[in-house]
Design goal:
single chain, 338 residues, alpha/beta, Quinone Oxidoreductase, Chain A, domain 1, Rossmann fold, 2 domains, seven-stranded mixed β-sheet, six-stranded parallel β-sheet, 11 helices, 17 strands
Length: 338
């Protein structure tokens, strides 16, 4: 017996998303669950994978790794979620549970972790499966129609706040006010930090202030950059382009950290300012299941949700074009109509 799943799939690089059906075994693995998808966020990684930018895409390709839906079925040994619960699923759908990283709580660093849209089909579908530990229940206060982007964009910027012990008394900069950066502003504001937004566009100044920034610095204005020199405890960079990295290092206070979650093509830095001020540079992927659960609880407590635009899942091509054009404000969510 097999289960037929309806999906939107691309047949090749930059290909149009078309309705498609595929089959999975009807029986679930002991710790596997099946999610009936109601909504799925659209991330730039979905676009990169569709276009095979990372040279790892298998076609037909079903994107979608910001899934929200109801648990429809569970394997015989599942204990962490129940049928009928609303859950979210992000970039990872399984980890080995036996390696040093998993046993230390760093499941997101598991060398053999299964990724929801790599080597398998994702959430632009009416059903998607995962191991139970990567399905995070949504609290009652979060809107399922808006929560999807938290499971990729959200956890990407929340994870370093936890991992590096950002304190409510810290002054924190956010570079790039987009799909990731707008969530970083919301998180850090509610975390209690003084939040400085770096943007290359003055048109985003009022938006950044409304999202939680206490101050906005134009990154193309050398005088504005100098005005924050030596003052920031932590900077999160969400951009995927090369910047004047030495200027951001100079913005850090002693022991400050520049942390990268956006995949910039390269980074070149003078060593002396880092040694003299004991400054550091780091990066991180998405977070573990425990950190994801902590983020969702934090969002429910403080009423944090992504700023979203919505398309029917059958209009996934229009959503991709909207994202590719740079018009998204700030995350796109598809509503399942397959």
């Amino acid at each position: 017996m097999a289960t037929t799943i309806k999906a939107m799939a691309a047949e090749g690089p930059k290909g149009e998303m078309k309705r498609w059906e595929f089959s999975l075994p009807d029986s679930l693995k002991p710790h596997e669950i099946e999610i009936e998808v109601t909504h799925c966020g659209v991330c730039h990684s979905d676009l990169s994978m569709r276009d095979n930018d990372w040279h790892m895409t298998a076609y037909p390709f079903v994107p979608g790794h910001e899934v929200v839906g109801r648990v429809g079925r569970v394997g015989e040994h599942v204990t962490m979620v129940k049928v009928g619960q609303t859950v979210g699923l992000g970039w990872y759908s399984h980890s080995c549970m036996t390696c040093r990283q998993c046993m230390s709580g760093d499941h997101n660093l598991c060398a053999t972790a299964e990724q929801t849209i790599i080597g398998r089909h994702g959430g632009f579908a009416d059903k998607v499966r995962c191991h139970e530990e990567w399905a995070t229940p949504l609290p009652a206060g979060l809107d399922p129609a808006k929560a999807g982007p938290l499971f990729c964009g959200g956890i990407t910027v929340f994870n370093p706040i936890v991992q590096f012990g950002v304190k409510p008394t810290d002054r924190v900069g956010v570079v790039g006010i987009g799909g990731l950066g707008h969530l970083a502003l919301k998180f850090l504001n509610k975390w209690g930090c003084e939040v400085i937004a770096f943007t290359s566009s003055d048109s985003k100044r009022e938006e950044a202030l409304g999202l939680g920034a206490h101050r906005v610095v134009n990154s193309r204005d050398s005088n504005q950059l100098k005005s924050v020199a030596g003052s920031l405890d932590f900077i999160i960079s969400t951009v995927n382009v090369a910047l004047d990295w030495p200027a951001y290092i100079n913005s850090l206070a002693p022991r400050g950290r520049l942390h990268l979650v956006g995949v910039a093509p390269d980074i070149s830095l003078p060593v002396f300012p880092m040694v003299a001020g004991q400054r550091s540079v780091s990066g991180s992927p998405l977070g573990s299941p425990a950190t994801t659960g902590r983020m969702i609880e934090f969002c429910g407590r403080h009423g944090i949700e992504p700023t979203t635009e919505h398309f029917p899942m059958s209009k996934a091509n229009d959503a991709f074009e909207h994202l590719h054009s740079g018009k998204a404000r700030y995350r796109i969510v598809l509503t399942n109509d397959l």
